[in-house]
């Protein structure tokens, strides 16, 4: 979503991406550019992202070498269009201030051990939508959606804070529409370089035609990098996490044991967008409760993305296995079990290929992935194709004529917290 970034009252020291690897383990230098520079970079990246998407439209899913019938694809540019600039109706440019009084959604032990990770931005409770921009341009992934501004989303019932204090983001369920369905895509106005992003959700969009994602993205895509934390389509039940970068970033192996991850590498080891047809390098979870109906029926869970000198990792914790240090607000990643996905710094400098990221939620319909996989099977949860299941030969026709089918196409998010290590 093209969000309206707030004007900064002052400029933070802006280190070049190539120098970011010099960060010590106890501190992170923030790669925050001025609002103007970010805005200019975005304008230059949007055209490239759209061109890549048009070129890829209709491409068949790539298959995993370990399982020939598993179709693979992930959000690419926009998907990977870098945080675009547009109108925003959010009431506060700083989520850190507005959400400071909110209470945790779950509880752990009564006394939390000291953690080097401190919250710099948090979004939860009645103020969840403060600090996000609402994207209203055409969907860069060619989906059958019209993203709406905050006022329209409010008046149409597409967003709310429910009785549990959770943020809900829906897709329009009008029985029939002539063109596209209304949906919501939001982007944090604050940016970060390095850190720990923790997202607690109890429900994510699911069902034929849906393509939800929670991800982070940098400027001048793919130069600033993209990290897809949660992503999948249609009836998938297993999450896929993926990174997209400039040429030069890869993972050292496709062997999960050597990578020390619980997921399965899909689509190869080259993470560059240009050299992989926008695919990047993805890892699919082996847990059937990590996405879609499996995730929702289990009460959801927590996703954490760790970005530090060792590389980038994505962790998934089902609702009944969320570490106490997370619920206590004092995360200790070094004590967690193996991540679902990991891209080590040995073959991809995490501060050269990734910088100045914003977090993003979106739900598109059909588009370059869900639309092209409409008649496909072979991925966990998609044993029967959506074409066969719905009786519609195209995803677009189904979307336009089947509003009630999107009753489960909503995010319900308890919180998003972004942590940084303490300054030395």
Written account of the structure:
- This protein is α+β, with helices and mostly antiparallel strands.
- The relative contact order is 0.22.
- A hairpin with a 5-residue loop joins β6 (about 160) and β7 (about 165-170).
- The chain is built from nine helices and 20 strands.
- It has helices spanning about 35-55, 95-100, 150-155, 255-260, 290-295, 325, 365-370, 385-390, 395-400; strands at about 60-65, 65-70, 115-125, 130-135, 145, 160, 165-170, 180-185, 185-190, 195-205, 210-215, 225-230, 240-245, 265, 280-285, 300-310, 310-320, 340-345, 360-365, 410-420.
- The model is unreliable at about 1-110 (pLDDT under 50).
- The strands form four sheets. Strands 3, 6, 7, 10, 16, 17, 18 and 20 form an eight-stranded antiparallel sheet that branches. It has an eight-stranded antiparallel sheet with strand order 4-9-19-11-12-13-15-14.
- It has a single domain (about 15-420), classed as Jelly Rolls (Sandwich).
- It starts with about 35 loop residues before the first helix and ends with a strand.
- It is globular.
